[in-house]
Amino acid sequence: MRVLVAAHNHPALHPGGTEIFAHDLFRAYRRAGCETLFLGATNQIHRQARPGTSFQGIGPAGDEVLLWSGHFDRFFMSQIDLYGVVPDLAELLREFRPDVVHIHHLLLLGAEFPHIVRRTLPECRIVITLHDYYPICHHDGLMVRTSGKELCHKATPDRCHACFKDIALDRFVLRESHLKALLREVDRFVAPSRFLRQRFIEWGLEEDAISVIPNGLPHRGVGARAPRISGDRPVFGYFGNLNPWKGVPVLLEAARQLIAERVPFELRVHGGAPFQSESFREEIGRLFGETAPVVQQRGPYRREDVADLIAAVDCTIVPSIWWENAPLVIQEAQALGRPVIASNIGGMAEMIEDGVNGLTVAPNDPRALASAIRRFVEDPALGRRLSANAREPDDIDTTARRYLELIEAIEPARIEAA
């Protein structure tokens, strides 16, 4: 079986959760005996164009390529380079001739990509893993209102127009129709969480067309699950990009409150703040200054170091204020036997059960987060109990097998229809 795995970037350029999982799955498909090709779309933020071709090589093996997609309509999620990118994508498909195209995002690739695949290779099976809410929500797929940080429970053209008053209401109607029409070419959708699946069903995708397959992690062996639990003061860790939606200001404000109360703890914040506004960087810079040295700004980290960094803390904190789908950092922490304090919304609420394998708190509430941290500090037995109940995530090879079983199941219907 030939499998083309496509994402909106490459983890070597932008190590986000979607890109990392897509690349891990690409390797797992190869271990399962598939002939695989990884296609990562990028733009001028990470790579400059090279005249004469849409494609650039990356990696030493020749089975990973970048698609330079500098001309892209973010509102309609549309690939508008009809004389460059679109014919080059068709040529790539004809040359590699995949049996399966597994898409992990439509950004930069374009919502037309499933249609290009179907037109070029009618019998090819098309699978999309839904990692966030971009097709539903123009606000960077967050489903958070632009005025303040109110969570959005349902997207409609009227509500979307209220968030973006400079965009006419009828354009939101067209956007929804445009995306749903192009997504009809997809054979199967996969959601890593039940929550995200339900959001897309409410948006209009067929219930029977969306399966739930949890994300998996590369197998690292056993022996790292012993709880650290410090003797003098617990150590908490944050891992991920620093941005407003990940709840970093909430976490730092909670730490400031605990420091004022003289609660003994240490917080290590791992991650950088790429592409963030000057005002946001100033805000977190001020909060880091007010909470040092209890709070340590450790900076960006490499994917291969994350296990050691998590193993060095007692508890991981995931304070996101948007409907996170399936944060890899929660799986990384649980795989190492580390409890997690997380917001009680979205897919996070499916991964962490309050009082069982972690603690959950209301999002965007520094007092609630401070209370959960204080509870962990004051009750060492709680930390040990939560650690013992950490839930081992699936390994990536198990996840790949589940995807391949799903793909095999849709083959007869597609061939018959063709």
From TrEMBL:
- Tell me the domain of life: Bacteria
Sorted alphabetically, which InterPro entries does this protein's record hold?
Answer: Glyco_trans_4-like_N (IPR028098), Glycosyltransferase_grp1 (IPR050194)
Pfam families, per the entry = Glyco_trans_1_4, Glyco_transf_4
- Assigned keywords, A-Z: Plasmid, Transferase
SUPFAM superfamilies to which the protein is assigned, alphabetical: UDP-Glycosyltransferase/glycogen phosphorylase
Q: Which GO terms describe its molecular function?
A: glycosyltransferase activity
For the Glycosyltransferase subfamily 4-like N-terminal domain, which residue ranges apply? 15-217
Listed PANTHER family = SULFOQUINOVOSYL TRANSFERASE SQD2
Task: Give the protein name, as stated in the record.
Answer: Glycosyltransferase
